[in-house]
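Blinded run. Sample ID left blank on purpose so nobody reads anything into the name before looking at the predicted structure. Input follows.
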Amino acid sequence: MTTNMVTIALGSNKGNRHKHLKEAGRFLSKLSKEKVEKSAVYLTEPVGHSTRYFLNATADIVVDLSPEDLIIQFKQYEKEHGRVLSHSRWGPRTIDLDIISFGDLVINTDSLVIPHVEYNKRLFVLMPLLDLHPDWKDPKTNKSIQQMIEEAESLQIKKTHLDW
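Blinded prediction complete.
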């Protein structure tokens, strides 16, 4: 099977957020066929009904899994690490792993959308993504990451010095 570079957005706002990111980084290292590339960690204003600030980051991994198999692994990991799925779109979460890109694929099925829905409007994804991919272009719109950042809704977001 061929390998693909995958970019993942991570977020946590429940429990020990920094610990959750570090553990997720180790999980991604086990999946990846190469060294995991990591963005800085960002402290981000909560969106929606959450009240606790998020820690957000992005990472690049290289896998020989299909996109469907990878998302199954992510959902299982989230569940094993205390993520409770609720009806609230923006509810608290110990860890959230979203596929932003998978090689050059664009997928839109009932169970999987790549690039992740609305990533291009979310500063908590775009700012960490800029760390790893300053020349990023959206595969659907061809907008640069700078354009997407400028068009994204304002949000309090601050780069931290946390290592993960």
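Unblinding after everyone has recorded impressions. The mean pLDDT is 92.
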